[in-house]
Design brief:
Number of strands: 13
Number of domains: 3
Radius of gyration: 29 Å
Largest sheet: 7 strands, mixed
CATH superfamily of the largest domain: cca-adding enzyme, domain 2
Structural class: alpha+beta
Shape: globular
CATH topology of the largest domain: cca-adding enzyme, domain 2
CATH architecture of the largest domain: Orthogonal Bundle
């Protein structure tokens, strides 16, 4: 026991107290204890207890949900919030590197804690007992170290997803993985093939969205390559370019870190240059080129995202950003409005973010100077939108109903509206309803 004070929310506190009064041991456990010690607000509060699942149901009925009864877990509802209450347990043999073949309920907290993944997740707390830290989790928290509980090889052989969770934890905290733990993660990385693609996608995306994603990707690249083997070619691949300071993988990592933590943006930066090693060309002057790499990266990313069962809408957004990440963006107002029309405001602004992060990843003064132009383009976009200038059919002063009233029909309506929008964007016509209607009438009679 250690004299550490944690503020347990009322719901969890009442559940623990009720279990104690019934003669059972109960503690807050795992991530909620860890996050509290890190001065972070826990997303969930989990409770472990010596009470059997049936006893928990009896004590808290009818405010219970039988979420995982065979694994000893019951969800207790209090004041609109859910708390998972799990009986102390010891896991049997793991045959698939993911699930124990049986779960045995035990009366000893120590047995329950020793089956957990990392020391920082193997601490328990109650106001009565204080902090129970059997594996040095508090010291590891203070030192910023991620260490497996007990024998690392055993922990990852039991549940291979722990390997990727370790990488994700580095991304969210900036912790360093203890040497033996990291070696075991690398040696057992192939066991990730036993984990469902859906679970891998969730953990990898959480890794990408972490504040310290660059550290996670650089500390354990072999694990990332197990999931995305196409990326391994990028590691250490020199670009031989005056525009690039880093190899392809390091450039990719910096680019991921440099863009804000948006799902589509982070996935785009991870995969935007994945085809570069396949498209590399060294000219007579010793300068490296990657002609056609955006299109090839698009095709490769399409396969990867499908393999990872990425949600369709997210995949579509990532792919359009990858395909266009290297396009030339002019600074003239008319051309900017054409791009706004082509991509839409949201995607066009995200494309600017992609190009900005790409330049940051290149790391040369030549590349960084391009960001001034991107800032200029963004300011023009903001002015266009704010001033209500016309750049798409929604902002055009006439619509399909106006054309129908003039006798236009079917597919002709869409084509004429597009032509009219071109004229407005190019400055050939003002975006004024009467002037546009007059032009439409002339078109209709062939004048």
């Amino acid at each position: 026991m250690q004299s550490v004070k944690i503020n347990i929310p009322l719901g969890a506190k009442l559940i623990i107290e009720k279990l104690n009064k019934a003669g059972y041991k109960a503690y807050a456990v795992g991530g909620c204890v860890r996050d509290s010690l890190l001065m972070k607000k826990p997303e969930d509060w989990d409770i472990t207890t010596s009470a059997s699942p049936e006893k928990v149901v009896e004590l808290f009925s009818p405010n219970v949900i039988l979420t995982g009864l065979k694994h000893g877990t019951v969800t207790v509802r209090h004041d609109g919030k859910s708390y998972e209450v799990t009986t102390f347990r010891s896991d049997g043999k793991y045959n698939d590197s993911r699930h124990p073949e049986k779960v045995e309920f035990v009366s000893c907290l120590e047995e329950d804690l020793k089956r957990r993944d990392f020391t920082v997740n193997a601490m328990a707390y109650s106001e009565e007992s204080g902090l129970i830290d059997l594996y040095g989790g508090l010291a590891d928290l203070k030192n910023g170290v991620l260490r497996a509980v007990g024998e690392p090889m055993e922990r990852f052989e039991e549940d291979a997803l722990r390997i990727l969770r370790g990488v994700r934890f580095v991304s969210s905290t900036g912790f360093s993985i203890e040497e033996n733990t990291l070696n075991a993660m690398k040696k057992r990385k192939d066991l990730l093939k036993n984990v469902s693609v859906e679970r891998i996608f969730v953990e990898l995306e959480k890794t990408l969205l972490g504040e310290f994603v660059d550290k996670a990707l650089l500390d354990a690249p072999e694990i990332i390559f197990t999931i995305i083997p196409e990326m391994e070619k990028c590691y250490g691949f020199l670009q031989h370019s005056k525009w690039h300071l880093h190899d392809v993988y390091t450039h990719t990592v910096i680019a991921v870190k440099s863009v804000r933590a948006d799902r589509a943006l982070r996935w785009c930066m991870l995969l935007h240059d994945i085809a570069k090693p396949d498209k590399f060309f060294l000219d007579d002057k010793g300068e490296g080129h990657f002609y056609g790499h955006p299109e090839q990266s698009f095709e490769m990313a399409k396969v990867i995202l499908k393999r990872l069962k990425t949600p369709t809408k997210l995949s579509e957004e990532v792919l359009i950003l990858i395909k266009n990440h290297d396009v030339y963006l002019p600074t003239e107002s008319k051309k900017i409005k054409r791009n706004l029309r082509k991509f839409g405001e949201e995607i066009f602004l995200k494309l600017l973010e992609v190009k900005f992060a790409d330049n940051q990843g290149q790391g040369t003064q030549l590349a960084l100077a391009e960001n001034k132009k991107l800032t200029q383009i963004k300011e023009i976009i903001e002015n266009v939108v704010k001033s209500g200038e016309c750049y798409n059919l929604k902002t055009l002063a006439v619509n399909g109903e106006d054309l129908i009233s003039l006798g236009y029909k079917g597919k002709e309506i869409g084509k004429v509206l597009d032509d009219l929008l071109d004229d407005v964007i190019n400055g050939n016509l003002p975006n004024e309803k009467q002037r546009l209607l007059k032009s439409l009438k002339k078109r209709k009679i062939g004048l």
